[in-house]
Design the sequence.
């Protein structure tokens, strides 16, 4: 008589070996992409990163890689995958989401309950110049006070594409929402994160905003 527990053990062992093989292939592809700047099978890599997110997150931190490394790779893969679709979206159908932590401590911006912080273009940070850049191209800008506010902005503005700025973890979480809504997005990581006076490369944001098919 066949032992049911023996069969279950064989199935679990086979499953574990398959997952291990998939993980090994994904790691090889990621290392290749990082070293050569050429991305092979981005959809497969992204699937593995999402499916094994927490084990990979723990593993990378245990071996000494910086915190948020898996989130960073995940964001890079999504940016690569979404590039072509994003390039087809007219500027007026795109929005830019900025975190309120980019503001200076003495920022005079006033919080609007529907549209987030309203920039006064005071010159204390680079946000005002960025908004001018967007206004010239009919790209709407929202400075959001928190992640929960993003859903309100999306419902209000109904964009066809979103460019967002944030830390690696926030960008990954937001990208999962955009995947569900089927909205192409592009994430720009903060160079210095935190709760206030964070830093970002504004030129990177501008380049992301004007991605097109040409």
Sequence:
């Amino acid at each position: 008589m066949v032992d049911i527990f023996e069969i279950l053990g064989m199935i679990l062992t086979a499953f574990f070996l398959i997952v291990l093989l998939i993980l090994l292939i994904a790691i090889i592809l990621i290392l290749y992409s990082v070293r050569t700047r050429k991305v092979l099978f981005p959809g497969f890599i992204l699937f593995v990163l999402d499916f094994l997110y927490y084990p990979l997150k723990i593993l990378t931190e245990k071996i000494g890689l910086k915190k948020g490394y898996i989130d960073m790779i995940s964001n890079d893969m999504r940016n690569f995958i979404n590039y072509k679709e994003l390039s087809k979206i007219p500027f007026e159908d795109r929005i830019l989401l900025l975190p309120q932590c980019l503001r200076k401590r003495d920022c005079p911006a006033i919080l609007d309950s529907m549209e987030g912080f309203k920039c006064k273009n005071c010159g204390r940070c680079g946000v005002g110049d960025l908004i001018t850049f967007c206004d010239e191209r009919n790209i709407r800008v929202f400075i959001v006070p928190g992640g929960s506010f993003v859903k309100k902005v999306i419902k209000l503005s109904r964009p066809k594409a979103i460019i967002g700025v944030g830390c690696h973890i926030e960008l990954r979480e937001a990208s999962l929402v955009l995947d569900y809504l089927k909205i192409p997005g592009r994430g720009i990581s903060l160079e210095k994160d935190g709760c206030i006076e964070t830093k970002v490369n504004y030129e990177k944001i501008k380049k992301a905003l004007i991605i097109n098919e040409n």
The first strand starts at residue 94 and ends at 99. The mean pLDDT is 87. The two ends are 67 Å apart (CA to CA). Helices lie at 4-36, 42-51, 53-62, 69-87, 127-135, 147-157, 168-181, 202-209.
